[in-house]
Amino acid sequence: MTLALEQAELASKKGEVPVGAVLVLNKKIVFSHNTSVSKIDPTSHAEINVIREMSSFVNNYRLIDSEMFVTLEPCLMCLGAAVNARVKKIYFATKDSRFRTVFDPILDFNDFKVNHKIQFECGLMAEDSKKLLNDFFKNKRHVHKNCK
Q1: What is the DSSP string of 78-140?
Q2: What mean pLDDT is predicted for residues 116-121?
Q3: One of 6, 9, 16, 47 is an active-site residue; which one?
Q4: Residue 127 designated active-site
Q5: In the chain, N or C: fewer CB atoms in 10 Å?
Q6: Would you give the distance in Å from CA 23 to the centre of its chain?
């Protein structure tokens, strides 16, 4: 998770939403961060980036037994990609208070009728991730407030 947090910090410095991800498969490690702004691509989330990179690296779209570490609870798009890639487990630092997907009581992701179930674990380095996200958005609001 430390490497994912370093990626999130890098994203923040580039003006991207500070989310970082690491994907591990058979002792191979890839890492990335959000690049939606710089790539002008709304699908360029950290999780999608590492799935794409690992798939290319191992020349297979199935990443069976892979484990992902991400600094924020994945969105539905990223969870869908993880299901299609057959990611085994996702560790995420902190829950997304706005768009809860994994543990939402109404939208219970693991209750979906999908052909692959992902294991989840939340809380590893949660405070560090929350602080990075809160500082980023606090700064964004401050900058926009001063522009008026």
Answers
A1: HHHHHHHHT--EEEEEE--SSS--SS-SSS-GGGS--S---EEEE-TTHHHHHHHHHHHHHHH
A2: 90
A3: 47
A4: no
A5: C
A6: 10
